[in-house]
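Consortium newsletter contribution from the modelling node. Members have asked for a concrete example of what our holo predictions look like. Here is one, prepared for the zinc ion complex that several groups have been discussing at recent meetings.
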Amino acid sequence: MEHDEKICPLCAETIKVEAVRCKHCHADISVKAHVEAVKPEGMGFAQKAFIVLILGVAAAFAIGAFSKPSEEDLARDHAKRAIEMCRDNEASYQGPAGARQIISGACRKLESDFSTRFSRTP
Ligand SMILES: [Zn+2]
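And here is the predicted structure:
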């Protein structure tokens, strides 16, 4: 089906979007006829259904937001892993003591940054 085509609601044949009369079954499919065909109570139901749908989507988003880890949680996990990695490096470092002290200092810096940023110790 082309982008300028649609399906006739009466005979299910492909017709032009602009068409007001089906070329296959000759049914009047103008927008005006369609609006007149929809009963007022039908509109009300559609609107209610729409509101229920929107509320459902909103609720799904709200639940998703609460169950998902927050930006801060992710940042904290990341920072914590960096500190753990740093301490591992420090513990397994076999090189000169001076270099090891630099690593140790870097780890302490990470830890103090963590405390400052998240107001707790890793
Ligand atoms: Zn038709």
